[in-house]
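Sequence in, structure out.
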Amino acid sequence: MIKKSKNLRAFVSSCETQKEEATPALVPKLRFPEFRKLAGWKVAQLQKIARPVSDRAVTGDADNILSLSGEHGLVLQSDYFGKKIAGDSAERYLKLLRNDFVYNDRTTKASTFGTIKRLSKYEGGIVSPIYKCFRFHSDENPVFWEWYFESGSHEAALRGLVNEGARAGRFNISISQFLFTAAPRPDEPEQQKIAECLSSVDQLMAAQARKVDALKTHKKGLMQQLFPREGETQPRLRFPEFQNAGEWVRVRLDEISRVIRGSSPRPQGDPRFFGGPVPRLMVQDVTRDGKWVTPRIDSLTEEGATMSRPCPAGTLTIVCSGVVGIVSFLAVDACIHDGFLALVDIDELQADKDFLFHTLSTLRNQFERGATHGGVFTNLTTQGIKEFEIHCPRIAEQQRIADCLTSLDDLIAAQTQKHEALKTHKKGLMQQLFPSPEDN
């Protein structure tokens, strides 16, 4: 019986070897010069170059419980949530070392076939047994494999493993099934080169993100100085030419503009009114775009637009339902629905539109206090906004403040575009540095 079992294992191993040898080598679209004359990447089963992690937690490990975040990777629960959420008993938890990988087979918007992350921030930790954990052999480059999974190159192999019985968005994939999948791999020097390349782009992205965050922090601090604090009539910081210009005056918004409320056709979703060529502003558009907003989520027909509130590009809008007080400009002609108020026909002799945007952006706490809080939603009333008071200097000082902050906004936008360009460049590199069976 033992002899038959050994023969069976040898036969299976031989079949797997023949299968791998029969698989043609793959070549990525983009290859570093020193590797272009080498043979293509060979396909290997993950179980030949990695193994499951089965070590269990021991006494004292409960302080190092890790959670898997799609955005931040493997992080300490105590840092990510501000507390431990796993309880004190962790005997069944899996014990990880640096460079181990964790696979969560729950589908997300960002990852259809689940999330795979490398433990890179800590020397070790423990994770829930619900995760599938594995460790590459010492002659494999873990950073290379981190980028391989990040690129999504493994998803084609996983697609064939998805169990039709998966429930609650989780696939019934065991660690053995996962490691039975195959992946193309180059030799270690090429792995190292790819890992270094993509890691350097990642470092550039992180540096650019820090630059954007620093500019945003600078702007926030500047605005706190350029506008009067609550209960005060002058700012702490004024441009030299306005040092002796006196106190700012209080004005109601309906004294310098006309306040209108959005409107929506009824019933909601009626094809006579919805789904046409006229864009309609939604709160999600505002939170996505910031200062200048192009509606992309909802639209109306021409008939539906007559039952809504059409506004021209450049209209200053205020969210008045839900996350009240967010201020933005329409970048295009669009309709606004009931969840928005707009300031139109602004008296340019009294108020600069850009100044209004910036000063209203500093007053969200006051908008919150002035809102009604009945039922599920927080609401700003049209009358409440009409009566809302702000401090204004003379028009020349308004324009000076607006020019300063607008130039800072432009700088932030330019640096943000650089960050987005790096993200696009990184995505393109990953698509070309890893071969695809469809392209070979």
